[in-house]
């Protein structure tokens, strides 16, 4: 008997799906031509923010087919997307060039098979796709099925199938676990002698340590520290908490392969709030620039994080839920208070700021905050430092491009699991992720790689 | 100083590619007119260091694009998108006669590409580059399965493309150096062909019995492909290089079992005693050993062993009897086999027999013997260990001028893939597939 390669990824995906070879082959060959079509994904191995071209050849001309993607997450959930196509006169389908007539995405969408993914029918509720182990790629199976299929992909045999790898970590990027001076996180350093511009990368209120964005930033030439938050109450005062972030920034700044005056801040949601806080209030650190995604500036002066959360909870009577009982938090902090003691003094910020927000953000009133921040910075003569990008129908979780959109997911609030509504419609949200990432990289390149000293402009 | 160094942005796209894919090397954020050296470094499986480099001058926008800009000197010159790969050579002071071959195809080749200030030609190790990146080059696409084959006394490895199949099949044969060399078969599987790399000179069975294999061995390999549930039994090809061509042509014409859909023969010949065993082909070469010549560096030239091309029909495979399309790839500077002369003779035989429409000849001026998949370095001469009871290592002259040889590798590989795709994937009758696509 033939010895099959151990640990074959194929068998992991298709263990229950491929019927007995003999009957499968007979049944298949009676339904189709002798030679199956060929499906290709180019490049077959790519960074998660790189595009690919999916093409099928050797189909009968004018035949309806379904292109399907399948991914088994680290949590063992299955995610899929599909598009309905018709082959041309040469028997080819090119996802980048042809129209999808139906499925989880429509129109000409080269990357639709990734960004329109959602959990397969029957999955657990409120799932969110986030890569934990960045040292191995995300494996996505791309297949072509005969006809325009809507469901039951698991029970059918595809005409052809191929595997593609999506990486957060570029080759040669080094991953270093950090646990010093009380700070915990993971530092990613680009390949090469350096020195490199640096980044302190902060996530949202869900906590934990998420490395994937820092890994991706390092793959683009930034030495990036993915910061793990302290647990609530771990640090005894607001000052100690503030200094945790300052120390984290300094760990990046003082690294021998980092250029000390070219370290920026990157934050999403709560991380974005912290980034603005540091930019405005720190006398210890001087970020070169700041990227704030889905953030705000509502922070009672002198409060620690626990007090901050309590301040939000005190408005919880304003909490709304939608028809599926998903929590909408955006109105908790509306209207934006006039009281300056409830907001960061953003007029003190001295570095370029890029604010990226979704207009359909149901979790945080990010656009209202951005408007108020602009107003405050204008009053302080700092408006020229601010760039705002706002995306219609995009939600709160603006992630690196081609990640699936989740309109609502599970979140642990005070030890209780709830479902939070993040907002956004899939296609506009995907567009926002793609466009914002491009803008973010250009912003970082300009401020962290460019020879010109921005201060010289003043 | 720090500020200037920080500015340089170096990127290679794709950072993880297949061995036969091109990449784009981009240097940005330098001053216009800046002189720089792009440098490639690779430490092979044998532990030897290889390097390539080229001199560029940044454009008015402060950038260098290796795919579009000319190199003004180094291990290659002119516009050469993949020059950093095919012009790799052992670093100064290395052992002589090295040949780069990846034996473990499950891991990528990792090449470090860096940028240095100025136009350097040596001492790279002593300088700090402005920037460096790592590029992975793979023989196996994701999802390709590697299956060792030992049934039927075979020493082989089967590579199955990803997907349910079924796929066309291919028997992949290397030349007189023996061993189980997997990389070309792995690459073919990455292109949708179930390819089996076959060791037929140094297989386990020969090591145990001391006897060289014959028809039955190749037929057993063919049967493994033919009977595999994920391989289309009626669409099997054979690809041979050098001595592998001798076997391929013999099987294509004389085997009662092997029915090929098409055949590819690289740098080989049809000249062989057709009565008798495969082992006797080897001995017939040894009988002409006195025709061995040497160049001024004492490198061995073996092309004359088969010259002149005989007129006696019993001394060459009767290619007039071929019933499947045949692609011949030859280098006109082949110093190891008279592959060009053989190709011309085969063409004439097929013209007389009336099956010339099956033949396509790709003949490359200034290309040598070892026409391999593209973007790896070729050696004009390298150390070769002979297969015999008393193996010797000699420096064999393969021939070929580096630039022309790399062009031949790139062009012939692309055309070989088209030929295989057209014949294995297309049409309902073998032979009807036009080779005009090439």
What amount of the residues of chain B lies in strands? 25-35%
Q: Label the structural class of chain A.
A: alpha/beta
Give the number of DSSP strands of chain A: 21
How large a portion of the residues of chain A is in β-strands, by DSSP E?
A: 25-35%
Structural class of chain B: alpha/beta
User: How confident is the prediction overall: mean pLDDT of chain B?
Assistant: 94
Query: What characteristic shape of chain A results from the CA principal axes?
Result: globular
Which regions of chain B are unreliable across 5 or more consecutive residues at pLDDT < 50? 429-438
Mean pLDDT of chain A: 89
Residue share in helix of chain A? 10-25%
What's the gist of this structure?
The complex is a heterodimer of chains A (about 450) and B (about 450). Chain A has about 450 residues and is an alpha/beta fold.
